Amino acid sequence: MTVNQMQVERVPNQAELVARAEALLPGLHERARVAEERRRLSDDTVREFRAAEFHKILQPRRFGGFELGFDTAAEVIRTLATACGSSGWVANLFIVHNWQIGLFPIQAQEEYWADGSDQVCSTASFATHSEMKEVDGGFRLSGRWKFSSGCDFAGWFIILKPSPTCMDWLLVPRSDLDIVDDWFVSGLSGTGSKDLILDDVFVPEHRRLPIMDLATGTTPGGKAHGIPLARLPFV
After folding, report:
1. Maximum Cα interatomic distance, the chain, rounded to a whole number of Å
2. Secondary structure of the chain: what % helix, strand, coil (to 5)?
3. Which residues share a beta bridge with 129?
4. Burial class (CB in 10 A: 0-12, 13-18, 19+), 207
5. 206-234: per-residue pLDDT in tens?
6. Mean pLDDT over residues 130-145, rounded?
7. What is d(CA 215, CA 88) in angstroms, rounded to the nearest whole number?
8. Residue 126, Ramachandran bin (φ over 0: left; ψ between -120 and 50: alpha; else beta)
9. CB neighbours of residue 192 within 10 Å
10. What pLDDT is recorded for position 126?
């Protein structure tokens, strides 16, 4: 799919998106208990989130998103969470992660949205053990990372680079890792925040986002998109 094919003709405003969230509340409330028991959201819930296009709120317009503000994201997330805390949490991550993807180098973004604008992503930032080697053209990554919320529905993952001094982000496709069903908790169990295992996975250099670029708001994606939303410092 080309970039031009992904760009939306009309961007909904905040009131429209909040109204879409409000329309989902009865179903979310009805499914909340089952989500906690099954330790993940239902397929129906995530299908409704995609149909409502919540994941596009902060997504770059170049890749089919709306490029709206964090105020709109916050109102939608707050509304969803009134019916189901786990649903609000996962929706929040699907929204914010697509903003984060928009900060990566354009080549990484093109790979991420290669199949269309409805992609969603999860993250994992805490490694119980990990190893990374720098190799020609990128890195080889192994280890186990915890708390990947909504991972059952993600096609890509942002993994925190294992280093005591540098917290760069590395972007990895679902096909390169395994999900461990170990999420047994007393609260927000519907988030499905399971462990990820990577075994000698190659991550090319263009799928790395340096932490200093994030902290200073000078990311490759921010420069390419040229909008204030993509130049915000991430702390």
Report:
1. 52
2. 45, 20, 30
3. 144
4. buried
5. 999 988 898 888 999 999 998 888 888 87
6. 93
7. 26
8. beta
9. 23
10. 84
- Whether pTM > 0.85 for this model: the answer is yes
What average pLDDT is seen over the chain? 93
CB 87 within 8 A of CB 32: yes
Could you tell me the sign of the dihedral formed by the alpha carbons of 156, 157, 161, 166, in that order?
Answer: positive
- Helices 70-81 and 85-101 meet at what angle, rounded to 10? 160
Is the sign of the CA dihedral 56, 57, 62, 64 positive or negative? positive
Structural domains of the chain ordered from first start: 3-112 (1.10.540.10), 121-216 (2.40.110.10)
CA dihedral (93, 184, 141, 174) positive or negative: negative
Strands (E), 71-223: 121-124, 126-135, 138-148, 156-160, 169-173, 178-180, 194-204, 208-209
Contact 143, 130 (CB under 8 A): yes
Residues 6+ apart with CB under 8 A from 228: none
**Sequence letter at residue 177:** L
What does the DSSP 8-state code read for residue 217? Answer: T
- Residues 134, 127 contacting (CB under 8 angstroms): no
